[in-house]
What we know:
17 helices; binds zinc ion
Amino acid sequence: MNEAERNVRAIRGRLLSFLRAPHGAGDAQSYRYIEDGIVLIKDGRIEAAGPAAELMPRLSAAVTIEHHADALILPGFVDPHIHYPQTQVIASYGAQLLEWLEKYTFVEEQKFADPAHAARNAEFFLDELARNGTTTALAYCTAHPNSAAALFAAAHRRNAGMIAGNSLMDRNAPPGLLAPAATAIADSRDLIRRWHGTGRQRYAVTPRFAITSSDEQLAAAGALLNEFPTVLMQTHLAENRDEIDTVKRLFPRDASYTAVYARFGLLGPRSLFGHCIHLDDAELALLRDSRSVAVFCPTSNLFIGSGLFDYKRLAGAGIRIALATDVGGGTSYSMLRTAAEAYKVMQVQGQNLPALIAFDLITRGNAAALGLAGEIGTITPGAFADLVVLDVRATPAMAHRMAVARDLKAELFVLMTLGDDRAVRQTYIAGEPALRAKLQDDRAISRAGGST
Ligand code: GUN
Ligand code: ZN
């Protein structure tokens, strides 16, 4: 094998990639599906993707083909709202948002003052994402700058594209989680210089939510966003009624919760707002006009008892929408489970979430929400070879039900409703298999020159 061939790999299976947001449940023009396809990968990026019959003759005999017969190969899932310091908060009993933060979350997050704890948890977090087929996440860290540094360093070693930021908090939380506005902004600036654009890592300015930041800190966050025109911004908005009442008390001169963020220059196309459940029409207009993203976190909203995201109302208002886990308020790392719960949240409001729209959201749609369209979330030449290989018959119940699924959209709906990490057969990050144990089991590795 020569040097050029060493960095080449081919993955064969059923390819599915979205071209644009589907207009409805059966919009067959919105995606490209290839029943027997090959993704050709070179130096971590997709070199070509197409029918095996066309690509096979072009492959040198030395190229390894990983044949995932009958599996669906999609772009790796994208999770646009998750908390990496909450892997030991997930599944904490019996509290709604403000009590849940005090009683469980702030307790666990203080442990990230210890760099060794942060490093261990960063590895666990990235392992768990890969096990669930998620290849990029927009992640909250704690207020300790070493927590963001630990996540970036671990992701960089894996060549995984993560977007993260240290939480800006200077009030209304335990002292161990607070940093004065000036210190926290200086830490953020240092992290941006060190990590934003290092390999695949990117930075997000992260004021946790209005309750835990002073005016001074929110203003500095807005200035930072302005200073670095390619960094993102993430925060929480209108998740819970008591939270909203507290924001009203803390910011009496602002017309609404959204207006607080608007006043500090935090709205815009690079800004993602978790939850957006209890918003008035004027707030929707602020989000729409600024091209901000509302992030729907169904398992979290149900688990913490926050309320129901009104997808139809926000989409109807022209607001960009993404779909996320919000672990550890959320109860699953799986974007399949998250899509299934989104479906149920919509059902109880008389709405539907077609499978095509759900799968577009968790791949291309979420990538676009992060400003990464074309880079990730798609199986097209030039994109990173971040892929998930899904076994649609991973469990007896799935196999049994799949036997009567009539077409691709029916199959996808069964996959999102019954599937989870058990359906993830392999995850590729920049072309490399991330699940080593599963690679050992793989019975179907062959060479282009041999029989497949
Ligand atoms: N609002 C402020 N912090 C958090 C958090 O960690 N999780 C959730 N769900 N909401 C928040
Ligand atoms: Zn959150």
